[in-house]
Amino acid sequence: LKQYDRITRDEYLRGQHVPSAALHMMNLGSTPVARFRSFLDVLRELAVNRELRRRAGTNEEQLLKIDGGNDRLPRGFADRLHDRIRYRCAARRIEHDSTGVRVFFDDDGSLQSVSCDCVVCAVPFSVARQLEFSPGLSAQKNIVLKNLPYVSATRIYLQCRERYWLREGSSGFADTDHPMEIWDATYGQKGARGILMSFVQGPKARELARTSEAKQLRYGLTTTEEIYPGVLKAYERGFVKVWDADRWSRGAVAYLLPGQVLTLEAHIARPEGRIHFAGEHASSLRGWMQGALEAGRRVAREVDAR
């Protein structure tokens, strides 16, 4: 396994004498993040997806969404939990010992605290780095907390008055020569209007993040026009989501660089006493809602087993 963790997928394929032109085609729409991940991390992801397809009884990857919007899932939890959720309260410090945990949080400028038997830390490690733990976490967990990388991603949503690409026999999805994928964000929805979404990752996403929203939308329009001519004519309005600028995310998806699978992965989800860790980064399906749900179920079992 070490030999596959030390190299990237592209390095492995070059070693198998795969032509550079073939590598170029494989990397369309991709970014240095996608190309420079640990090859062992890529193989692990492929194995997980293959097992999911086996369980579903299909040879094709299934991408599903919730009718009415994926935000219906967290809203469903919120409706059930009601006033047990404290909104707009940022955790600042977690004190823990063998008997319990105390969480200090900012409530409208006032430092408050709550005591509990266990804590589930489900925030991304890119944000958890700002938390203070007392006593400090183990050396291994601190290394993971400080070094787990996150993908920079900027999503540019372009609302069009009609889904002209369907009329022309196109799907609305595409890989491009830019570090960008194009998705039909309204695939399968009713109505005439549609949204083409430019999914930009890596250095280009960080470059866009430093510009104004007007320039970000202009980039999305001009590059999408190259792939799906007609978006400039059909465009109505747009919206941009910069994941690096989201204070509660500081990046989009966790991934592992060469050498990190065998040194970091085993410690990502490992509990620290009464502190348990969930989220997409602490699952076998990093980057997906299923991963967050998988981690949540795992943590529930860990807490129940106490």
Task: Please describe the topology of this protein.
Blueprint: H1 2-5, H2 9-15, H3 20-26, H4 32-35, H5 39-56, H6 72-81, E1 89-96, E2 101-107, E3 110-116, E4 119-121, H7 125-128, E5 132-134, H8 139-147, E6 153-160, H9 164-167, E7 174-175, E8 180-184, E9 194-201, H10 203-209, H11 213-227, H12 231-234, E10 235-242, H13 261-268, E11 275-277, H14 289-304
Parallel strand pairs: 1-5, 4-11
Antiparallel strand pairs: 1-2, 2-3, 6-9, 6-10, 7-8, 8-9
Helix pairs in contact: 8-13
Main features:
alpha+beta; 20% strand; 306 residues
Query: SSE order, as H and E?
Result: HHHHHHEEEEHEHEHEEEHHHEHEH
Q: In what range is the share of β-strand residues?
A: 15-25%
Shape: globular
Tell me the number of strands.
11
Structural class based on helices, strands and sheet pairing: alpha+beta
Biggest sheet: strands side by side, in what order? 7-8-9-6-10
Major sheet size, sense and barrel closure: 5 strands, antiparallel
Mean pLDDT: 93
Rounded to an integer, what's the Rg over CA atoms? Answer: 21 Å
Structural write-up:
The chain is 38% helix and 20% strand. The model has no long low-confidence stretch (mean pLDDT 93). It has 14 helices and eleven strands. A five-stranded antiparallel sheet has the order 7-8-9-6-10. It has 306 residues and is an alpha+beta fold.
How would you summarize this macromolecular structure in one to three sentences?
This protein has 306 residues and is of the alpha+beta class. It has helices spanning 2-5, 9-15, 20-26, 32-35, 39-56, 72-81, 125-128, 139-147, 164-167, 203-209, 213-227, 231-234, 261-268, 289-304; strands spanning 89-96, 101-107, 110-116, 119-121, 132-134, 153-160, 174-175, 180-184, 194-201, 235-242, 275-277.
